[in-house]
């Protein structure tokens, strides 16, 4: 979904149940039907109506009231159900024009395939769960155990950012996936730290 805040809020709120339960319930006068609805939501939005809120070199043209109206269409409960938030800042010309060699698509594909294989083995005896995003709270506790330093790191983030219990679970699932991509049996502090960075819309200065 492009330009997420341009959708009506009640339309966006309808996604909360399928994002959480991976099913959608339709109720009519005489019957109620529940359908499977497992999908991947990818959405984008500007940080403000004018689009320059996070650009240090451009003036902010929107008033605080306009920004609040714009961002208020995205509710906290909806954001809670999105696993990864990433703030994309403007890229300077020198960065665009420089010759950089990053990880190739072939190598990335190999790591992703290996991580999916790890998850397939992890949930081999569970016909309802096939990958980390599908884990419930009990399974998260089993497969996302943390050492004391990682627990303290996560505790500090939860308290400082005032994150919800749902965001806590999502951080653990994302950290588990980051560890899988590195073929790490245990979730380390670096994995937790990276997963916390992917909750950028939970921070002050965005949605309240």
TrEMBL record:
Magnesium chelatase ChlI-like catalytic domain: residues covered: 1-93
Keyword terms: ATP-binding, Nucleotide-binding
Entry superkingdom: Bacteria
Domain spans labelled Mg chelatase-related protein C-terminal: 102-199
InterPro entries assigned: CHLI-like, Mg_chelat-rel_C, Mg_chelatse_chII-like_cat_dom, P-loop_NTPase
GO molecular function, one term: ATP binding
SUPFAM superfamilies cross-referenced by the UniProt entry: P-loop containing nucleoside triphosphate hydrolases
Designated name of the protein: ATP-binding protein
Organism annotation: Seonamhaeicola marinus
């Amino acid at each position: 979904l492009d330009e997420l805040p341009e959708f009506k809020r009640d339309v966006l709120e309808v996604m909360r149940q399928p994002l959480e339960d991976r099913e959608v319930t339709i109720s009519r006068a005489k019957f109620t039907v529940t359908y499977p609805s497992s999908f991947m939501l990818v959405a984008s939005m500007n940080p403000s109506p004018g689009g320059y809120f996070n650009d240090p070199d451009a003036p902010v043209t929107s008033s605080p009231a306009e920004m609040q109206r714009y961002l208020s269409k995205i509710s906290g409960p909806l954001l809670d159900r999105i696993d990864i938030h990433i703030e994309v800042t403007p890229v300077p010309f020198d960065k665009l024009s420089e010759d950089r060699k990053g990880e190739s698509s072939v190598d990335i594909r190999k790591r992703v395939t290996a991580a999916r294989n790890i998850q397939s083995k992890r949930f081999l005896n569970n016909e309802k769960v096939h990958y980390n995003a599908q884990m419930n709270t009990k399974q998260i506790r089993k497969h996302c155990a943390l050492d004391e330093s990682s627990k303290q790191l996560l505790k500090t983030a939860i308290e400082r950012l005032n994150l919800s219990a749902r965001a806590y679970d999502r951080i653990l699932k994302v950290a588990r996936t980051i560890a899988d991509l590195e073929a790490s049996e245990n979730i380390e502090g670096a994995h937790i730290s990276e997963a916390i960075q992917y909750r950028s819309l939970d921070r002050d200065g965005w949605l309240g």
